[in-house]
Amino acid sequence: MSLIFKSILFSFFMVMGVQAQQSPQLLFDEANTLLEKNQFADAMNIYRQIEKSQQVSGALFLNMGISATQVDSLGLAKYYFLKSTMFETTSESATEAIEYVESQFSRQSATLPKLPWDKAVDWLKDGPSAFGVFFISFGLLVLVVGFVLLKWFNIFNFKKLNTVVSSLSITCILILILAFYVDYVDQRYSEAVIITTEVQVKQKADESADLVSLGYEGYSITVDHKISKEASGWIYIRLGNGQFGWIKSSGVKIL
Amino acid sequence: MIKTGNHIGFIYSLFLSLFLFASVHSQDITVNASLTETNIFSGEAVRLDVKVTGQSINSIDRPGMPNIDGLRWLSGSTSTAQNFSYVNGRPSVSYTYGYQFIAQAPGTYIFPALEISVNGANYSTKELSFKVLDPKTIDSGDAERSPDIYVRLEPSNANPVVGEQVTADIVLYFKSEVEVSSYNASPGWKAEGFWKEELENRQQASATSTIINGVRYQRALLLQYAIFPTKSGKLTLSPYELIVQVRQRNRRRDIFSFGLGQERKELATLPVTINVSPLPELSNAMFSGGVGNFSITRSINPKKAYVGESVEVTTTITGQGNIPLIVKPDYEYPETLELYNPQENSTITRANRQIGGTKIFTDILIARNEGTFEIPETNIAFYSPSRKRYNTIKLPTLTLEAERDPRSAVLSDTELRFNVKPITGLANWVSTKKEPLQTQRWIWWLFASPLLVLGVAFGWKTYQDKMNSDTAFSRSQKAKDKAFGELKKAEGQTDLKIGYNHIQKALNQFISDKLNLPLAGLSNQQLADALKEHVADVTSEEVKRLLDKCDTIAYAPNASIEGLELDIQKAQELIKQIGKLV
């Protein structure tokens, strides 16, 4: 009886799992067929459909980037390749593709090196992520609680246990704060790519405001979502050279 | 011998005569002040003449000019004139100082007396009364005098729509006795809310005769501007300022113009309000921003190009209207065609009181891939003020054929190599849904769980510590279990004496443990009394009754097993009851 129940349950989850994966994969196969026939625009439309369903993969973005190099702006191609680098399976190919795309841009942006702190936060964001940092903090908390319990019930004790517990507790809190900070940075700032030939970077979110700089296709920029909420249709950005300003949101793809 | 005393008397007499002569002369000095006009229109120029006359004037300290209510002094325009004449056979000299003012706010004012020092003596002018008149009264016919000359800004249309051309005429009105020799427009006229363009103006303005409120004036159109409102609402054109050189034909000669009779006047128009209406809503077409009458064409050149070669899509807009305000149409280009810096050129004509010309927009496109591409048909509209509706022009579809340049094949193979192949098999799908860390409830629960465990462990540890260290607490906690254990022994007993002994032991032990009393040596009454402080009297009496029964069971004549079982149950109930209260 139990065996029958388990079998039904297993089959149910298998079917559910396959169905959940079937839809984007089917569309993906269909789009790939079009891609192989050099029907890049049609393939791109289907890829976009998959992207909208919020089911993504490195292969999807890689293929979108390849289609974009053929049918659309190179800026858009760079955007998709950058998305593809976020996936381990396609990171290498996407990096190679980005090198090619970058070489095709007529204008290259000067890029200021990041500060060590920003580099560290980026590393945490892209590596363990906020969740990973949070779980490190959680692990330390479990350790602290374990030590305290062992001591209370006289199972385990040593001379400097109190010092160890205090140090671990402080470290745990600091790492927890770091996890939330990494998450905050992740939510507030996003990398983006300019996909139109030229955008005007303005001092204010106003057509008539003074011009700060010009941004060209393929420039990587950083978007500040918090400040961007102040003006509809505009986004507040930081250019690679450290300049800040407002641009219209239509000419940019946010990673 | 010479008598010196007579010489001294002669010299004294001579000095006295000279002094008296000088005193007589000083009494001849007169100081007068007058305004060239005492009824002055706001914005009109007026001159104060201070005239010092006398037969012998050695020194004059020119008077300083205080702030005058109703007038603004033009400090750089003060002039001086000197005149010699013979009055009754005696020579006379006069000095005249001219001070220029501009009339300010309408009202009646007093020009105060001015102090002037002549030959070391102080003289004072008389106060002068004058009125500043409202220039609006000229047009309404309520003016107290008709000014000799004034200027007006006359718009061709006071109720245009946004972007419609309004011709603003700068018109000079002057009486026949006034001759205008030249005029200069003050730079910096602001037409806020308008885009303005100067029309073709004649070198020399011709005057026509007109009658305004019964007075004959010459009307001269000096300048014309085309102004285009850029927003809707009530927009005000600020005063336009002019400087004119005039000569009065019938007036006596002006001493300040070196005999030419010329006078410099600063004039300003009244502010004019234009009521601008918004453009109506437009659907199914792209608005070019044009208001007027235009023809619009679009072309592509070349129609065949190599991949990477630039192609121009040119939109030409020609006609009359707000040409400079027309914006570049945004066409929907196929994704393969990349749009580069658009260019625009315009030529403007200003003839016949109308702004017109041609505006050319050029989109530079580069095909990134070979193929035939279509730039779709586009409807573009402009607003026609004469017809009071939009005119829509259909721009036909443009086609571009792009092919690869055979000469660039080698280059693209070597330098522009793109070796990344698409992934066409199975892919690992992940969800992109991402929520902030702090909004996920399970995160907080997860983090709180070790702390909850710690809290529970702390409670348990505290309990254990108390059980080990606090005997009373420990006895109280264990009392119930012990008592029930004892009662368990009583159950099933066939020997009534032993059974009741267990009941007595259970009750004694339970009450002693709960109330932290000694285990032995207490009578039933003492136990009941101690219990009374915590439970109801009925309960304590019931406990005493049961304990007494246990003591006397050996002598009870009608004791039975059933009675024992009932008393065990009774004891259990009492223990539970006391346990809740103590």
Sheet/helix structural class of chain B: alpha+beta
Helix content estimate of chain B: 25-40%
Kindly state the mean pLDDT of chain A as a whole number?
Answer: 84
Main sheet of chain B: which strands, in order across? 25-26-24-22-28-29
C-alpha termini separation of chain A: 51 Å
How many beta strands in the DSSP annotation of chain A?
8
Low-confidence residue ranges of chain A: 12-21
Give the end-to-end Cα distance of chain B, rounded to a whole number of Å.
Answer: 159 Å
Overall pLDDT confidence of chain B: 83
CA-based shape of chain B: elongated
Could you name the ranges of chain B where pLDDT drops below 50 across 5 or more consecutive residues? 1-5, 14-26, 251-260, 409-416
Tell me the Rg of chain A in angstroms. Answer: 24 Å
The number of helical elements of chain A comes to 9
Largest sheet of chain A: 5 strands, antiparallel
Basic shape of chain A: globular
Brief descriptors of the model:
heterodimer; A: alpha+beta; five-stranded antiparallel β-sheet; globular; B: 582 residues; alpha+beta; six-stranded mixed β-sheet; 31 strands; disordered N terminus
Please describe what this structure looks like.
The complex is a heterodimer of chains A (255) and B (582). Chain A has 255 residues and is α+β, with helices and mostly antiparallel strands. Chain A has helices spanning 2-36, 40-52, 58-71, 74-85, 91-104, 116-126, 129-152, 161-188, 225-228; strands spanning 55-56, 189-194, 198-202, 211-216, 220-224, 234-238, 244-248, 252-254. Chain A is globular. The model of chain A is unreliable at 12-21 (pLDDT under 50). Chain B is elongated, with a radius of gyration of 58 Å. Chain B has 9 helices and 31 strands. In chain B, helix 5 (471-490) runs antiparallel to helix 9 (561-581), helix 7 runs antiparallel to helix 8 (537-552) and helix 8 (537-552) packs antiparallel against helix 9 (561-581). Chain B is of the alpha+beta class. Strand 1 (55-56) of chain A pairs antiparallel with strand 31 (430-431) of chain B.
